[in-house]
Write a structure and sequence with these properties.
With about 500 residues, this protein is mainly beta. Strands 2, 4, 5, 8, 11 and 13 form a six-stranded antiparallel β-sheet that branches. Strands 3, 6, 7, 9, 10 and 12 form a six-stranded antiparallel β-sheet that branches. Strands 23-24-25-26-27-35 form a six-stranded antiparallel β-sheet, with no helix packed on it.
Length: about 500
């Protein structure tokens, strides 16, 4: 693999888990009888149905394909909020359910709910929350399924749709884990930090009389918040956050978990790892007049000029974190961190997907009359004996002192199936303003002010609101930023970069 470089920023992984209540099915179409489509008809741009081996199969023949189900349904929209469908698709990625009611007997725009399908020819179960639409009300009398868009690609490729079942269901309360994590990625020894457990009821019934129990390994001490908490009644669609403050006196890796339960019924279990690093050294307070890279003590390095300081901290794992400081008239102010320095995902010879957080083990500093740089190096042998040589270079100049030039490169001595290679993962505001930013910008996708969150349904309906990793073509200007006065921290990149062989267009990640 040739040298490559990518840039990404503001990266946050959300872990989703769900706990289901008792599901009740009011109406279902199972397609178990050969030749029986159970009242569904291939109304528009779909070939005639074939029902065999427990599935219904059809082919997309034109634009706007749809199929209409039997009439005279009597579905109480106030109780049955979800449609579950198990299907597979070969081409299009968007599907929709339309419906009619006793007061709206015709299919019309607005009385629909879209969902994203995976066109990989494999069966997937899609749970469509039609009840979150303000038009899903009263008595539902009929359903229509648009199993794709009827794109030119699908029509030319004779796009196949195969449906195992369609079910209208009442889920009861269902709890989805939004996040369970510390309020910062870098927790240092002696810190008191906040642990947040956030959930959402994505079912169609309130959750009541539940408790949340916090469990932690020895070495992490609870200083605020009860170990067992009563969970307030959580209505369908509502979210809830529970917070605990913990004290971490020593370095190491510690696990923490929350058990959510109702009486003796387990609802959800979430676990996270708390990585505690040594306390940051007391760096010299002086602001440099020109770019320089130097080591004040031990193996820690500083790369700085009159505006920016990057502190490369080394512990027993390697260089992590890289702390970002901005110069103020009186002192250096921390404005974020880069942590971890990099991530790699690849497929081993066995077929297993391997993930690696990179913590370089050595650093090389260079100084010249107009710039300075620190290069982090790592040599890693993977499970197949392949040698990875990783090189992360950070450069500051005097001509444009507010900009850090970053270049990441990876090389291997054998052929490797690389799935993901990250650039700098910048956690803006960590160690300073945190989430209390005034503005965040990701042109073409996000403009956030005050407490607005990225990838929300404020402007785009679910599931298309998830914009953490958009297609590169959707980014109108290759820059992203977060501001908390007087600070602005951002990232720009070359959107046309040919980063490996025929591969171009690095993909940015954004979450604020």
């Amino acid at each position: 693999m040739k040298k490559s470089s990518l840039l990404l920023a503001f990266f946050l992984v959300f872990l989703f888990q769900s706990a289901y209540g008792q599901m009740e099915i009011i109406k279902s179409w199972e397609f178990e009888t050969p030749g029986n489509a159970e009242g569904w008809s291939s109304t528009h741009s779909l070939s005639g149905f074939k029902v065999s081996n427990g599935t219904l199969t059809t082919t997309i023949t034109g634009s706007d394909p749809y199929m209409i189900g039997p009439g005279s349904l009597r579905i109480d929209a106030s109780r049955y909020w979800h449609i579950r469908i198990r299907m597979r698709q070969t081409h299009d990625t968007n599907a929709e359910f339309f419906w009619t009611t006793t007061t709206q007997p015709d299919f019309k725009a607005g009385f629909e709910f879209g969902f994203t399908v995976v066109p990989d020819s494999q069966f997937h179960v899609y749970e469509v929350p039609v009840g979150t639409s303000d038009k899903w009300k009263g008595t539902i009398t009929r359903l229509r399924l648009d199993p794709g868009e009827g794109s030119a690609h699908a029509v030319a490729g004779k796009g196949q749709v195969e449906i195992d079942y369609i079910r209208v269901v009442h889920l009861g309360p269902r709890i989805e884990l939004l996040t369970f994590a510390m309020d910062r990625q870098v927790v240092t020894a002696g810190d008191t930090a906040e642990l947040t457990f956030a959930i959402k009821n994505t079912g169609d019934e309130a959750l009541a009389n539940a408790t949340a129990k916090l469990e932690m390994e020895p070495g992490v001490h609870l200083v605020e918040g009860a170990e067992i908490r009563d969970v307030p009644e959580l209505e369908a669609g509502q979210t809830l956050s529970l917070n605990w403050k913990v004290f971490t006196p020593d370095t190491g890796s510690y696990s923490a978990a929350v058990r959510l339960q109702k009486a003796d019924q387990a609802l959800l279990f979430a676990e996270t790892q708390i990585q505690v690093t040594p306390a940051l050294p007391a760096f010299p307070p002086e602001v440099s007049a020109a770019a320089q890279a130097w080591s004040p003590f031990a193996e820690h390095w500083l790369l700085e000029n009159s505006r920016i300081r990057l502190a490369f901290i080394k512990d027993r794992k390697g260089y992590t974190p890289i702390v970002i400081f901005a110069a103020s008239p009186q002192r250096w102010q921390q404005v974020g961190v880069i942590h971890p320095p990099g991530e790699i995902t690849y497929k081993a010879v066995s077929g297993q997907v391997q993930q690696l957080q990179v913590f370089p083990d050595s650093a090389v500093a260079e100084n010249s009359s107009d710039s300075a740089s620190v290069t982090l190096l790592s040599n890693y042998f993977d499970v197949d004996g392949t040698r990875w040589q990783l090189r992360y270079r950070y450069r500051l100049g005097n001509q444009n002192p507010s900009v850090v030039e970053i270049r990441y490169a990876a090389a291997v001595d054998k052929k490797v199936q690389l799935l993901h290679f990250s650039g700098p993962i910048i956690r803006a505001g960590e160690g300073s303003f945190g989430a209390t930013r005034q503005e965040a910008l990701f042109p073409g996708l996000e403009w956030l002010i005050d407490a607005e969150e990225s990838s929300s349904a404020l402007d785009v309906h679910s599931p298309n609101d998830r914009r953490y990793l958009p297609h590169p073509y959707k980014v109108t200007v290759p820059v992203m930023s977060v501001s908390s006065r007087p600070w602005v921290i951002g990232l720009s990149w070359d959107p046309l970069q040919k980063w490996h062989a025929a591969s171009a267009y690095p993909s940015p990640v954004f979450a604020s």
